[in-house]
C-alpha cells in the first residue's frame, strides 16, 4: 500500500509518498495545475502501482483549488481523502516541535497522517456531496444577490410610488411586477386606460381602481431614470428567481440520489436538508453530537466576546452555512413537532429571549440529526424525550 499526500496550490501542486512501513518513496514531486501536469501525475501514480486500490491519496480541503484534481483522481479510480487543515495542523504538532513549513514537508505530513489514520474512510470524498455543497452555496449567493435587488426595488418604490405598499401587502407579486414593467411610474398608471390595467393577470378591478386613483394623488417623485432602474431591477429579480429554482431542481435530484433520512424531520425539506448534508458531508467524521454542535458554531464558545488569535483577527468557528440551516430548521420544527414546540415554550418560560431559545432548539435538533444520520433511521416523534 502506498500513501500519497498532495499539497494544493493555485498554479502548482506538491506530492510526497510513503509506503506501508513509513519509508519515504517520493520526497517531492511538483506538477502544474494543468492538463500536462495532471498527465504527469497519472504517470507518477502508475509507477507506484498499476492497481489504483494499492494507492491511497490525501490532501487538505482547501476550497475550490482542489476540486479539479479530486475529480480527476476519482475518475481514474483512486480513493481520495480530504482533511480539514486544522486536523493536519494538530497532527503536525504531534509529530515535531520544529516550526518549519514548506509545501514539500506539507505533502509528506499529509501522507503520514493518511498512513496513521485507522479509519481514513471518514474523510473520503464523495461526488454527490461535493456537488451538493457547490450547488447549495451557489444558490445561497444567488439568494443574496436577489435580496440586494429586492432592497433596491423597495427603495425605488418608496421614492416613485410610496403609497403603493398600503394598497398591496406583497410588492413581490407577479401582477405588481407586470404592472410596474408596463407602467413604471404613477403618472403612467394614472393615464392608463382602465381596460388595459384589467388585462394584467390576477389584478382585480377593485385593486386596479385603488392603485390608479392613488397614483393620481401620489407624492412620489418619478423620472425616466428611476423608471428605467425600476424595470431593470424587476427583470433582475425575476431572473434570479428563475436561476434559484433551476438550482433547486438539481438539488432535488441529488437529494433523491442520497435518499437521506434528514428530510423525514418535520420542517426540513430538500433545501435545508441539502445545506445540512453538504456541510456535514460524512457524519462519521464526528464522534458525538457535541463535535457536530461545535462544527456548526453552536457551542458556548461562540458567544464569548473579545476572543482573539495571535494575529489579531477575531476567531471564527464553525460553518456559517450549517449554522444558518440549523437555526432555520429549529424554527420550523418548533412549529410542526409537538415535542420541539413544547421545548421552545419551556425555554421561553425560563426567561430566555426567543433567539436564545431557538438556539437551544437547534442544539437539541443536532442530536436528532446526528442519530438519524448515524443509524439511517427515519424521524419518529414518539421516540423523542
From TrEMBL:
Residues 262-344 form the Transposase IS116/IS110/IS902 C-terminal domain. It comes from the Bacteria. Residues 4-162 form the Transposase IS110-like N-terminal domain. Keywords: Coiled coil. InterPro entries: Transp_IS110-like_N, Transpos_IS110, Transposase_20. Residues 230-257 form a coiled coil. GO terms for biological process: DNA transposition. It holds the Pfam family Transposase_20. NCBIfam families: transpos_IS110. This is Transposase.
